Amino acid sequence: MGFKTTKNVVYNKCSEDIENERKKSTFDPLELTHLLDGGPEKTLERREREKLFLSDPELMDDVPAEYLSHKEKYELSIKKACKLFKKVSQLRDQGGGDMEMFKQMLSGMLGSAILKDGNPFALHYVMFVPTIMGQGTLEQQALWMGRAWNCEIIGTYAQTELGHGTFILGHTANYAIVVAQLYTTGACRGIHPFIVQLRDEDTHKPMKGIKIGEIGTKLGMNATNNGYLGFDKVRIPRENMLMKNAQVLEDGTYVKSPSDKLTYGTMMFVRVVIVQDVASYLSKAVTIAVRYSAVRRQSELKPGEPEPQIMDYRTQQYKLFPNIASCLAMRFAAMWLWNLYNNITSELEEGDMERLPELHALACCLKSVCSADGAKAIETCRLACGGHGYMTCSNLPATYGLVTAACTYEGENTVLLLQTARFLMKAWHQATSGIKLTPTVAYLQSAVTSDTSRHWEHSLQGIVRAHQDVAAGKIKLAATNMERRIRGGISPEDAWNNTSIELTQCAEAHCRAILVNNFVQTLETFKVSDSLHLVLTQLCELYAVHWVLQKSGDFLRFSGTSRDDINNLQTWLETLLAQIRPNAVSIVDSFDICDEVLSSALGARDGRVYERLFEEAAKSPLNKEPVNKSFHKYLKPFLKSNL
Q1: Which residue is catalytic, options 358, 379, 410, 541?
Q2: pTM for this predicted structure
Q3: Contact between 512 and 545 (Cβ < 8 Å)
Q4: Does the annotation list 160 as a binding residue?
Q5: b/e for 332-367, b at 16 or more Cβ within 10 A?
Q6: How far is CA 269 from the centre of its chain?
Q7: Distance from C-alpha of 200 to C-alpha of 198, rounded to nearest angstrom
Q8: pLDDT tens-digit series, residues 400-458
Q9: Is 410 a known active-site residue?
Q10: What domains are defined for the chain?
Q11: Are 154 and 172 in contact (CB under 8 A)?
Q12: Of 480, 268, 264, which Cα lies nearest the Cα of 365?
């Protein structure tokens, strides 16, 4: 059979190397696909949805986006986004759409196949609508939600402080959630969310007092149209302040929110979504790099023998296989965090805010660590593909641009780690005071009761405990050093700043302990075949061992790990690389990412890399004529000038 590719080219046969890789598989890739999707029915629904949208010629590109101007890219993205979400709306009205479809449209999978350089409506659905739902009263939801959900208005999210992060859609949105300082009865009440009209609904011209535009080109996400926004004596009705939590009465009386952290509900939601998206983008990158590595042959491993597949080199396996494992670790963490977010949101509706700080701390550190790891991993995948990975048709540069953006939007990663560290410092003081801790920091109790590290255990559970020992040790050290500085006469604020390197490091260590532990616990819940369970266990072990070796100094300092243990872990890692090697292509096949979504000349399912590279080169406007006019205008006179 032939495989339909990103550019609608069909080859009748797969690469022989790819076919041989799939024959080596020791497990059924479809079983893993069903597991990741949530069951065979979910897989079928997803595939049918992909077929429905990706077969629509109006939603697919005629010309590679890299050959368009900045203005053309934006206009094309708006055209496609309007058609895309109109189709989504029609399916919803016909009973064929659900929230899962919206998630796919906004995700790093199906949505990114259609809107490759960012979704111009993403902030409308991911921040504007959820903020109204989470922060608005029932009356405000009734007034705004229908219009927003039906795209009668397009919203964005803005913070007013000059120089602070914001999400303005410069030329797209006509309304915004503006997070601004509230002053009433002569007092500043802190930041609150307001709905502000930015542009006229008919003409789209900026409203009086509104200064708005876009900020220019960026490394990636240029179709998102980030912008600037200024206000000059802009007035809005009192009712435009979202008042589910805090309120301003008609006489100006301020009614305080039960908790100032309730304002951050939307940001926590977005951080959960970011972890999901990073896992999706990374799964695309490793699929591309692994398939390419199965086809690309280079150098002689043994004199006189044919050039081996580059995936046979241990160094190539070391670049790629831990990142396959990271895909699963992030994906499982995203699932766990999503469930926790929904549970705690339900508790908030009942007035129970006990676990809100824990959710905030988890969302902050997981967003930070996963986006940083994801960006680095995608760049590693690009480098693993050599010069071909540098080409835009590999889709690795664009994928990197989309993920590295997540390191700074919705909270710069260092700032978010410090948010988590603040929670961890409080948890440490609770532990030392004998107060019961929430589940994700319960491991701190053992660090309080014992000054010695636990004995190293050469097992998966032993590595989980070692990660917790490292996190606890770094948390304890940061708390001790901050207290020492305060006792020495430094203000608490300066002590915090002076200890901030250790604080970010302890937050990262805490997050890595969460990721490893969650991977192990998730694996224990699966009811799968022995063959698949073995493969998943190998990936879980690889992820855990890899991060011990990456942070070996921390493990030698804060856990019972010895130098001999590190040597044994290196051997364990190399053994795992060899065990995973025969299944590498089948594992990424299990991610079930169709060629249109991969959008890569290097990563198509049939492995016909070199044919596709030639096809992509032929699309360059420079190749439409044998001699470019610059030859006659500039180059020929230069060559004849006899310098």
Answers
A1: 410
A2: 0.93
A3: no
A4: yes
A5: bbbbbbeebbeebeeebeeeeeebbbbbbbbbbbbb
A6: 13
A7: 7
A8: 999 999 999 888 999 999 999 999 999 999 999 999 999 999 999 988 877 656 778 88
A9: yes
A10: 56-257 (2.40.110.10), 264-591 (1.20.140.10)
A11: yes
A12: 268
**pLDDT value of position 3:** 33
Residues in the chain: 643
- Say if CB 554 and CB 402 are below 8 A apart: no
* Whether pLDDT at 384 is above 90: yes
List Cβ neighbours of 123 (8 Å cut-off, separation of 6 or more): 155, 156, 157, 167, 169, 173, 224
Residue 457's contacts (CB-CB under 8 Å, 6 or more residues apart) are 465
Vertex 115, ends 167 and 601: CA angle to 5°? 130
Report in angstroms the alpha-carbon separations of 264 from 128, 164, 267, 361, 448: 13, 16, 5, 12, 32
For 124-240, where are the alpha helices, taking DSSP H only?
Answer: 129-135, 138-149
- pLDDT confidence of 35, banded at 50, 70, 90? very high
pLDDT value of position 323: 98
Cα angle 278-281-283, degrees, rounded to a multiple of 5: 105
Cα distance between residue 311 and residue 219, in whole Å: 30
Confidence at residue 507, expressed as pLDDT on a 0 to 100 scale: 98
Q: Is the pLDDT of residue 537 over 90?
A: yes
pLDDT tens, 585-621? 999 999 999 999 999 999 999 999 999 999 999 999 9
* Residues 485 and 456: beta-carbon distance below 8 Å: no
**Average of per-residue pLDDT across 15-44:** 96
Strand order in the sheet with 175-184: 155-159, 175-184, 187-197
Asked whether 31 and 529 are in contact (CB, 8 A), the reply is yes
Q: What is the pLDDT of residues 467-526, one digit of tens each?
A: 999 999 999 999 999 999 999 999 999 999 999 999 999 999 999 999 999 999 999 999
Interatomic CA distance for residues 545 and 445, integer angstroms: 25
For residue 509, the model assigns a pLDDT of 98
- Residue 69: phi and psi, rounded to 5, are -75, 170
What span, in angstroms and rounded, lies between the C-alpha atoms of 410 and 606?
38
Read off the amino acid at residue 32: L
Tokens, residue 338: 């999503």
